[in-house]
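Sequence of DNA-binding response regulator (Bradyrhizobium iriomotense).
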Amino acid sequence: MGGGEHGSWCDIHFYPPASPIGHREQLKVSSSVFVHVVDDDQAVRESLGDLLRSMDYQVMLHGSASEFLSAELPDAPACLVLDVRMPGTSGLELQEYMTRINISMPVILMTGFGDIPMSVKAMKAGAVDFLTKPIREQDLIDAVATAVRIDQGRRNDLVHIIRLRERYKLLTPRERQVMVLVATGLMNKQVASELSIREATVKMHRGSVMRKMGARSAATLARMAEALNIQR
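Predicted 3D structure, token representation.
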């Protein structure tokens, strides 16, 4: 795909899934999940779009890297199916640029001209998969499913961090001091010594911290502190 370096549309095809059973029906997904396809060949874009829509994905087709970057991206789980060889900005260049501007959408790269160095470079840059043509339908479906799960997990983690930050804001300055010390594994007596306060006061602040943060144990509190990048 892409540029004048590939053959005609008739030379590019998809192999059917290896399994004859209704595998597609087992892989239907929520229609709120988006797949972006970037390829300069319109016929290829539409073919990929038809396949992915049959899996109930919302599909957005883009004819170039610049077209993708200028599009309004829905705030929903998504992944990018990206041709490597395109006029202007290549797939690898777009992948690198997305990393620089902090677009975290998982990327699946594909090409009819892939080689080992290119594949290694793509995977090191964070690509979920690197598919070479002719592409099996099931390989693409599986790669997209994996990429979407990654993005869903990333979004869930982000929501979790946002909620933790909101809870952390509710802590008083002293409670934050107690939290970081408890998270490092110090006992109440040690925390009291560090802060030059009574142990009973530490217990009071610790109980308030646990309640506000929604932590049931010191281990949980330690994981929260780590997620928030709170250090002593």
